[in-house]
Fold each of these.
Amino acid sequence: MCKNHTIIFTFVIMVQKMDMADFISNGFKQFIPQLSIDCTIFGYHENQLKVLLRSWKGVDGWCLPGGYIDRSESIEEAAHRILNERTGLTNVFLQQYYTFGDLRRLMNPGNEILLKSSWLYKDARGSWLGDRTISIGYYALIEFSKAVPKPDEFSKDCAWWDIQNLPVLLFDHEQMINKAINTIRTQLKYQPVGLNLLPNKFTLPELQKLYETILDRTIDRRNFQKKILSLGVLKRLDQRRKIGAHRSPSLFTFDKVKYKRALSESKGPGF
Amino acid sequence: MCKNHTIIFTFVIMVQKMDMADFISNGFKQFIPQLSIDCTIFGYHENQLKVLLRSWKGVDGWCLPGGYIDRSESIEEAAHRILNERTGLTNVFLQQYYTFGDLRRLMNPGNEILLKSSWLYKDARGSWLGDRTISIGYYALIEFSKAVPKPDEFSKDCAWWDIQNLPVLLFDHEQMINKAINTIRTQLKYQPVGLNLLPNKFTLPELQKLYETILDRTIDRRNFQKKILSLGVLKRLDQRRKIGAHRSPSLFTFDKVKYKRALSESKGPGF
DNA sequence: TAATATTGTGTGCCAATTACACAATGTACT
DNA sequence: AGTACATTGTGTAATTGGCACACAATATTA
């Protein structure tokens, strides 16, 4: 009972803070009630696939950056706006992947909060607090170094987390992340995943480790290089990376024209 | 100007009718505003892939069967309910595939209706008529003979249409159908498409024509049979179909246990 | 009984995937 | 300087899978 009160209370705080943050950054917007967007933002750094998460002051646990949809913007535009508010980036590779609408998706596992209880609270968007909010999931692929995590003044923190070492997540956001990973895994053949996650210059072993991380399996180094190079979407540069006491690998960059042509011919960089 | 008035007027009629229909079939429900579900229902009959469409009295053009989400049901449950209201079927194979949220998705192409005009009309769900409604797209695969199209009293008609010969569609519903076809095309390898679209007993040429229709290309008959049979998901029955002046093809049925096992091993019936 | 259209099965070629081996390179240590 | 070592770069053979193609079996009709 006491526990439930606490959780409801943190809900109220979060909703109020989110409204305030939205208001400050966007001015007055007429948000669609009971509908939101959550972004799973992937980055890749030091051979680790990472997601950008935020936490709230006064609330334990992390969650995906998200926001609401204004009546005057498409959901695509809303997703880009939300992403920009959080990372400062524009023109990001962003894809819708699933809409989450389970009744209990905002309940933390194990907690038995009854919906429609007397604690119901109608917030500024006309949603009933405690009502289920349906959330449209987008995933973004961004170059790690370009993103500047922007914690607003209501965030406790905003940080990158390793996919293989996630913190405790609020709501159903762990499920959302898992579904996003699964999506980029199956789309690796057909979408420019490597191009969007890696920096402009990279080595073949770096590209391979990205593939291995996403696919969660090892790939034979020799076969990988043979196949990737045969696709003709990479340009070998006259530079090498110094990697300590070993042979220096060549740096490559994506030939974006050829990459797009290969994708449109559905000859993507698959494995 | 006059044309715009007419279109707005048909909108009003449709919304009112939809509310009424929902009310009659469901009793009072607290629908989530500005959010809907549309179902692309696929059936297969006489070597043709078909979709179930409905039309409204007093409105030209056809659209996908759809409905609203109640605050007390998950979107999955809502999709099943809507499908059941339209076809009478339960336990249908149903998959979410995309959420459509363009600002102008309810506008017919070529019409320049300004949003937020003075004609705005607030309907029973708190939506502004003329506001964009976001719609979650589901596709269903059902056995043609089991579905009984159920036009309610506000429908002009409810009928199956060949994929290759669609009527004029309202809103963005042609785009929704195309995206659904594209989805089952790419998921043919990983989802039990044949199992859900075909009747219990079928011949290999019938199965092949289904694949050819969905993939929109021809497949070599001998290679198709070899590959499909090698998957081990079919059981050959001791029966043959009479097809006139030709050799009688064997009837087959799906071995559902082996089918599911093959899917989970991602060795689906691909091409 | 022959003609015809359709089903059922087999064979060989080519491309792609996979398994596996060895040479080249950059640094550190002796 | 020379050797040890880990890593990169390239090659080759075996296997698998997709694709093109040929022929026998079957059911009806003329």
Amino acid sequence: MKLALNHKSPIPLHIQAEELLRKMIADPQFQNGKLLPNEIDLANQLAISRTTLRQALNKLVYEGLLIRKKGVGTKVADAMISSKSANWLSFSQEMKARGIPIKNFELHVSWIYPEEVIANFFNIKTDQKILKLERLRGKPEGPFVYFVSYFHPRTGLTGEEDFKRPLYDILQADYNIISELSKEEISAKAADKFIASKLETEPGSPILFRKRFVFDQADRPIEYNLGYYKADSFIYTVESRRS
Amino acid sequence: MKLALNHKSPIPLHIQAEELLRKMIADPQFQNGKLLPNEIDLANQLAISRTTLRQALNKLVYEGLLIRKKGVGTKVADAMISSKSANWLSFSQEMKARGIPIKNFELHVSWIYPEEVIANFFNIKTDQKILKLERLRGKPEGPFVYFVSYFHPRTGLTGEEDFKRPLYDILQADYNIISELSKEEISAKAADKFIASKLETEPGSPILFRKRFVFDQADRPIEYNLGYYKADSFIYTVESRRS
DNA sequence: GAACCAAATATGTACAAACATAGTGATTTA
DNA sequence: TAAATCACTATGTTTGTACATATTTGGTTC
């Protein structure tokens, strides 16, 4: 890996350092608890001060990607698949940041008549067709999550979009819809036959189930999303402060 | 508001400054877009360097509580962050609020030597005994959650407390410790024999597992908590808004 | 009065230096 | 041999300093 920054660039050095560190985090060379180079050496190699380097490190520590320990060193946080609330990174962006390679197993688009619950949430009639998106994603070894999304007609999605791009990108860039608010319900359940077959596991095996309601800037419903995560392949993290 | 830090305290100045800033953030005086004092003045008032003050400011900016603007100043961000809705209610308070009658099945207090993980989190040695609290609770028909809590020696808990009172009450009222920050990890797993027997279910049946790290006002660890919820008896809700 | 310019103000970036403290491992001591 | 000590390493804390850059403000000129 090339360890050098462009001191002539108008991009601040600590931002450049942060980018570089993100690449290091995704590098298998530093996985499995192996330590990063120490701050002083790394700062010297990059020809920046330790303070500036720490500025970059702090940001990544705060994001939970790095773990520092006094007297020992800095290592990449365990690449357990996790999702931080109030973190608006998309699934693939987040996995990428952690250097977890993602494989898309299935992607299926259809137009369906919504069930009662969904029609109710979207505040539409059950005879108005809506877009349904099913996705099976996971590691190269096998799938670990099955997503189902339903979209409000208001989104304008045609079903012809390239759903390999992050969803929130598509909505924002192409349809000017910003996902502002998300309400989620997380629970555990046993896999039924359908889910078990999708996730290549046994019926009855534990599943982390996430129901997600997404709203736009005007608090209007735009997406209804179900996620079935294979147990132990996914951890949901929440941070909350009294105030 | 008293603007002074204790330079003799072993608590780092940037942590003290952070605490003070949190109080300022909560102060109506600085709400509604009014600017905080500028960095240089504030640093002078607190008798710390601007760098140290910025260390504290940065943390709050990362958390989305403060917004800085070059050439203008720093103001408190418009409220509305993540998920504190039902989060700070105690278990029994929450169930009460939902009209669910609660039965306490077991309550067991013991002093144990901490495992590596816990000692590490508490930053203590594994040969220092800590208080462990186990609780089995649920509906009158049967238990649905098994809690295990470990407490940092700093809490001062003796094990003689009346644990039928809400925990956070005991800590706050009797020991002047406020649970400020909580980090949680939620995942699904299969019940092992022990958990299954406690929850009166089958080994292998799905469990919602919640690991909780609780910190005090100075971000010092005070509690490590594990919760095993029978599937479908518990739903975790999160609300998050893009900042 | 409008346009322009310059000073004042506040945050942003960056460095060098020093000392503190936690963890590790080797060396010395009881 | 086991415990105590010490040196070493890496991060943690803190200061002082300097210059850069965005924004606002007030004065000057046309």
